[in-house]
Specification:
By secondary structure, this protein is α+β, with helices and mostly antiparallel strands. The protein folds into 2 domains: 9-144, Rossmann fold (3-Layer(aba) Sandwich), CATH 3.40.50; 151-307, Probable inorganic polyphosphate/atp-NAD kinase, domain 2 (Tumour Suppressor Smad4). Helix content is 24%, strand content 32%. The chain is built from 7 helices and 17 strands. The protein has helices at 18-26, 29-38, 44-63, 95-102, 132-140, 207-223, 225-228; strands at 9-14, 69-74, 87-92, 110-114, 127-128, 146-156, 161-164, 167-172, 178-184, 187-193, 196-199, 243-248, 263-267, 272-276, 282-286, 293-295, 301-314. A 6-stranded antiparallel beta sheet has the order 7-6-17-14-9-10, with no helix packed on it. A 6-stranded antiparallel beta sheet has the order 13-12-11-8-15-16, with helices on one face. A hairpin with a 6-residue loop joins strand 15 and strand 16 (293-295). It is globular, with a radius of gyration of 22 Å. The two termini are 19 Å apart. The relative contact order is 0.16.
Length: 317
C-alpha cells in the first residue's frame, strides 16, 4: 500500500553490528578484541560503530509514536517473517538493509533511518536518526512523499521469478566460465564469461560503477585519458528511472563464443533474454545474496526486464 492513513503497526528491522557478530563467533568481547589486535587490527573502531548504533537503537525506541503497535525484528529472521498489508516498515541500518527487506515486501512502504551518517552513505536511508521521531509522525499522517525505486526481475520459463533492488547476477556458482546464449534487440550471441550483471538505478552506484571504473581504467591504459574522457563517471542512473543496464563480466572469445553484446540499456517493456548452456552450477541471484538463488541450467531461458513492482521508499520532500 502507499504511505498514509491505514497503518496499524510499525515494524522496525535492525541488523547485528560487527561487534555483536564477532562476540557471537568468538564467545566474548575480550576474545574478539584479542584476535583482532593480534592481527594488527584496531578494535576501537568496531566498538565505536557499535556504540553509535546502540545509541541510535535506543533513540528510535524512545521516538516511536504512542498509540501505534510496534514490533522489532533482526535481519536474520526476515525469511520467516510475514509482513502485514498495513505495516509501516522502518529500517535502522545501512542501505543494504533496505535491499534485504525489499524482497519480502509487496507494497508496504519503507522508512529508512540512517543510524550513523559518518559511516553510511545513505543512498536508500535518507533520514538521520535525529529526524526519526518527526519522520515517523509525518509518515503516519501521510505527509511524506513516496519515491518508487525501480526493480529488476528475471522470469524463468518454468515460472520462477527473482527480483532485485540493485543487481541481478546470471552465471555459475564456481569460478568456471558461464556459458549461455544472449539475445538482445534482435541480436543473438553465444558467450563464455564470468557472468552477466543487470543493474538498476539504485545499484548503479555499486557493482555497476565498479564495472565502469574497471573498463575506463583499462581503456585509459591503452588509449590514453584524452580518448577515454570521463567514461568512469558515466555510471549514475536515477533510482526511479524505468531503465536497467546489463554488463558482461570478462567475456572470452573463442571458436564457439563471441563478445559483441557486452553492454546495453533495458528500457520500457523490452527484455534481455539469456538461455543457459551450463549443464550444472548455473544460477541467478539478486543483490549479492549468493545463497539465495534460482537454478539456471542447460536449456532454461531467463527473460530479464523491469519488474512490475517497485520499492516504495518514503523520501524527504
Amino acid at each position: 500500500m502507499a504511505a498514509g492513513g491505514g497503518f496499524t503497526k510499525i515494524v522496525v528491522v535492525t541488523r547485528k553490528t560487527m561487534l555483536e557478530e564477532l562476540v557471537e563467533r568468538h564467545g566474548t568481547r575480550g576474545q574478539a578484541r584479542f584476535l583482532a589486535e593480534s592481527r594488527g587490527e584496531s578494535f576501537t573502531e568496531v566498538e565505536q560503530a557499535h556504540e553509535t548504533y546502540e545509541h541510535a537503537r535506543q533513540s528510535l525506541r524512545k521516538g516511536l509514536p504512542a498509540g501505534v503497535r510496534s514490533q522489532w525484528i533482526e535481519r536474520g529472521f526476515l525469511p520467516n517473517f510475514l509482513f502485514g498489508p498495513h505495516d509501516l516498515v522502518v529500517t535502522l541500518g545501512p542501505d543494504g538493509l533496505v535491499v534485504n527487506v525489499a524482497k519480502y515486501l509487496a507494497t508496504q512502504p519503507v522508512l529508512g533511518i540512517n543510524p550513523d551518517p559518518e559511516r553510511i552513505d545513505g543512498v536508500l536511508v535518507p533520514f538521520p536518526i535525529g529526524a526519526a521521531a518527526a519522520a515517523l509522525t509525518a509518515a503516519l499522517a501521510d505527509a511524506i512523499p513516496v519515491r518508487r525505486i525501480t526493480m529488476a526481475r528475471a522470469r524463468l520459463d518454468d515460472g520462477q521469478t527473482i527480483d532485485a533492488v540493485n543487481d541481478l547476477f546470471i552465471g555459475i556458482q564456481s569460478h568456471a566460465s558461464a556459458r549461455y546464449r544472449i539475445e538482445y534487440r534482435k541480436q543473438v550471441e553465444n558467450q563464455s564469461s564470468s557472468g552477466v550483471i543487470v543493474s538498476t538505478g539504485a545499484g548503479s552506484t555499486g557493482w555497476y560503477r565498479s564495472v565502469m571504473t574497471a573498463a575506463a581504467g583499462l581503456a585509459t591504459a591503452h588509449l590514453g585519458k584524452k580518448a577515454v574522457g570521463n567514461l568512469a563517471d558515466r555510471y549514475p542512473l536515477d533510482a526511479t528511472a524505468r531503465e536497467l543496464r546489463f554488463s558482461v563480466r570478462e567475456p572470452f572469445t573463442s571458436l564457439s563464443s563471441t563478445a559483441g553484446l557486452v553492454w546495453g540499456p533495458i528500457t520500457g517493456s523490452e527484455t534481455l533474454d539469456i538461455v543457459s548452456q551450463m549443464p550444472t552450477g548455473g544460477v541467478i541471484f539478486s543483490d549479492g545474496m549468493e545463497q539465495d538463488f534460482v537454478k539456471f541450467e542447460a536449456g532454461m531461458r531467463a527473460r530479464i526486464g523491469i519488474a512490475d513492482r517497485s520499492l516504495e521508499l518514503l523520501w524527504p520532500a
